[in-house]
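hi support,

uploading two proteins for the ticket. first:
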Amino acid sequence: MSTSLRKPEAILQRLEWTVLRRLDGQLFGDYRTLFRGAGLDLADLREYQYHDDVRHIDWNVTARLQTPYVREYHEDREIAAWFLLDLSASVDFGSHTRSKQAVAGEFVTLLARVLTKRGNRVGLMIYRGGVDTVIPPGSGRRHVLLLLNRMLAPPKTNAPAVETDLRELFGVALRAVRRRAMVFVASDFISVPGWAPMLARLAQRHEIVAIRLYDALESELPDLGGMLMQDAETGEQLWVDTHDAGFRRRFAAAAAQREANLRAALRNAGVDTLELSTDEDLAEAVLRFAELRKRRGQIAAGGRMPTHLRSH
């Protein structure tokens, strides 16, 4: 077997033996609850009732009849899931032992294996300054290895440096994913603006979970003295003095504002958000995902919707 195939096999085997075994009995008993809402076929229309999921409102029928109507669905035994993975230059960063890219790759691989172990199909789109990979949904362990192999593939060395534009990724998904599915968007969401409305359009068709990747160093700089900082995507360089307490405060304030803007954009798009740090324990991240899905189920029964779950 070639080296390119041995590496994905070794990674997947490690995840199966370390993380999946730890989660057995904690996650899989609630499997249908975690992934309910995806793989649905339209069954009927009826008048809106209190506690109905507002995302199922049929706005065309509602406007025509002047009365809120919701769509009812038959749930398929099979779940179709897509992973929209941002592997742009800014994701290849991490101040700990792992980069955001490595964390995202392992999380996607793990969820894909959870789904395919039960006969479901998963597909993958990869963005590297443009959508360069689209793998249609498939099932089985071999298919997960294919996805992992494509995620590990190096970027094109002669590709020009461009700023991330997630509108392209969401646009491809809107055209390619026709049947209702569960869609996981794994990104740090460091992008040119304007992507939120397209994500909202995607959320009208599919059930979306945003896997927001971040590193602690992006929010607060330590006192390291003078250092050269470089934008991973544009290559722009800037010399800064991190010993300056005022500069560190301004940096933290700007990061906090970006954080607030991002959370507002995701909330307004109507998507669930799981925040995933580079120092995250993968099993704990999956359990937090399970908690998010259970809370989503409680919302359908009349609770309050959390906009994000974050590690502490």
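and the second one:
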Amino acid sequence: MGFPSAAAYARERLGLSPRKARALVALERKTWEAPALLAPYRQGELSWLRALAIAPVVREETAAAWIARAQAVTVRRLVDEVEWVVERRAAGVSAAASEPPPPGTRLVLPKRQMRAQEKCPPVDAEIIFFAPASLAVLLREVIAAFAKPLEPPWRGFERLLEHAEAEWQGQPRSRDPVFARDGWRCTVPACTSRRNLHDHHLLFRSRGGGNARANRITVCAWHHLRGIHQGRVRAWGTAPDDVTWELGIRPGCAPLLRLHGDEYVVERA
């Protein structure tokens, strides 16, 4: 068609990033396997992002349940639930066709197997990855630096991973139990930030709020300082599972969104 690549075609002719174009193609192919997903997606009842999020787990027999869940919760919660189902399925805990977990389920993932069992036979397979040439050269040099003379490259790669894990484990940890309880992530609905976390008091201490963990919740610096303390975001309730959020607060107007945890609160007339 006269374009140097499919990516160039997507950018210049369709006005889409190559990543989004690939995602839309994958989503279209998924609707062939689960036709029940097609109608809500085509009619705009389900955004392409939410439809893509449930693509790894949706089947024709479970499509209705997953579509309903996708319409009821934030994308963040939806992605967490899909990951939970996929991990449990890989561990043999869940069936191939699994419905969403019950609302409010604590999503504890099965413990991952990080290395081969000691009794497993040695593997001589080659690890293949795709990356910019400069990064590939750098990684190969680092692997070679961690390998001893006459050792295969995979042993150097294993030592590199062991070194990275040791460095990570050696980093100082925050002693705040609230961060660990909330999974080291901002709890404001739809926010996925894991950086610059603050310990926020749901009922401000200036208004009599105490330091009990039920009155404290994890929020990122932006939502804490620019959202809550500037009046754009409001939160109340009991942490961690009974917190109501109002987002997009404006003088004299209803908030743009109201959620209980990660579930949308539907206003009834």
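thanks. also noticed: The mean pLDDT is 87.
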